[in-house]
Amino acid sequence: MSDGVGSRLRLGVLLSGGGRTLQNLVDRARDGRLRAEPVCVVADRPGALGIDRAQRAGLPVLCTKDMAETFDWLERHGVELACLAGYLRLLRIPSVWQGRVINIHPSLLPKFGGKGMHGERVHEAVLAAGEPESGCTVHLVDEVYDHGRVLLQARVPVVKGDDVSSLAARVFAAECAAYPAGIEVWRVGGSIGS
Q1: Between 2 and 168, where is the model more confident?
Q2: What is the CATH number of the domain that holds 33?
Q3: Is position 170 within any domain?
């Protein structure tokens, strides 16, 4: 495990969509704001736009829905931490990967999480509930959607006049800082209270 001072943690990124979170991790790794490095990508959808982002970044990509293939790919690339980045498939995590898979979710879990709660649906639900704030949660992944020990949460106010688009943009901006911070929390083995 890369735990020495200055060492770079090897990340595998799992995605289903456009790859904005992958791009954020790549950019932050390259400019030194992240002491980790994406080394490979798994996409579960052949047409995912994130595949193009990964290829432009020079990252090897596997497109599969098979869990055994997924974790074999991560192992072959020396991945120490798997990071879900808009990955919509429920993982069956092998025992050797327990505690080594994290996710970022666009709400303050446990609110507005679970099967089917992703993307705009989350922000719609937050607004419909009249919540005064939203945010994002970085958490360990287990075999339940949006469940697992919270590593870090970032809060974002819901402001008068917010629509799904404006709230989503503010939450994503918070995610861009929170995911790298959550990776660092994982590296040192702790959690930051919610």
Answers
A1: 168
A2: 3.40.50.170
A3: no
How many domains is the chain partitioned into structurally? 1
**pLDDT confidence of residue 31:** 95
Q: How far apart are CA 132 and CA 134, in angstroms?
A: 7
| Structural domain contains residue 50 | yes
Least-confidence region, from 9-13, 53-57, 114-118, 164-168 = 114-118
Indicate whether 68 belongs to any domain.
yes
| 179 touches 104 (CB < 8 A) | yes
Is 42 among the domain residues?
A: yes
Tell me which residue range forms the domain holding 11.
7-89
Tell me if residue 147 is catalytic: no
What is the reported pLDDT for 3?
Answer: 47
Instruction: State the DSSP H helix or E strand holding residue 169, giving kind and residue range, or none if neither.
Output: helix 164-188
Residue 11: name the closest of 80, 107, 72 by CA. 80
- Given 105, 118, 123, 139, the catalytic residue: 105
| Residue given tokens 């808009």 in the structure block | 86
> pLDDT band for position 189 (50/70/90)?
confident
Residue 180 · residue 33 · CB < 8 Å: yes
